[in-house]
Amino acid sequence: MTTPALALLALIAFVTELALFGGVGALAHHAAGGGAAGWAAAVGATALVLVLWGLFMAPKARLRLAQGPRTVAAIVLVYGVAFGLLAVGQTGWAWFVGIAGLAVVAAQTVLHRPADAPS
Predict the structure, then answer these.
(1) 40: in domain
(2) Is residue 107 part of a domain?
(3) Which residues constitute the domain of residue 43?
């Protein structure tokens, strides 16, 4: 892939990750029944996913998973959130996360490959 293509993939993946993290919050809010408890659940679930993503998935993560497990984790998270959003009636958001989530999976597969190489 060319550098502009990689930059575009990274941008699409980043925007999709934001929608994905928001989807986690929306699902937690729904699961907690809304209200103050829903908002607390949304903040807590989103914070947890952000911390785990930052530790294990992000390009500069200190404990970054190897490419294979990272790709599997991205697939599980993207499609778990997409199907969850679909189940609670957030159809448009679900389709966006599901389809654009392919960029997140691709980014985990092809971007930052040198970081996976042995030092």
Answers:
(1) yes
(2) yes
(3) 16-113
pLDDT tens for 41-81 read 999 999 999 999 999 988 888 899 998 899 899 899 999 99
Kindly report the length of the chain: 119
Taking residues 10-35, what's their average pLDDT? 92
Residue 99 carries which side chain, given as an amino acid letter?
I
**Predicted local confidence at residue 10, as pLDDT:** 79
117 falls in which pLDDT band (50, 70, 90)? Answer: very low
Cα gap 13→115, rounded to integer Å: 18
User: 3-state SS of the chain?
Assistant: CCHHHHHHHHHHHHHHHHHHHHHHHHHHHHHCCCHHHHHHHHHHHHHHHHHHHHHHCCCCCCCCCCHHHHHHHHHHHHHHHHHHHHHCCCHHHHHHHHHHHHHHHHHHHHCCHHHHCCC
The C-alpha atoms of residue 98 and residue 104 are separated, in whole angstroms, by 10
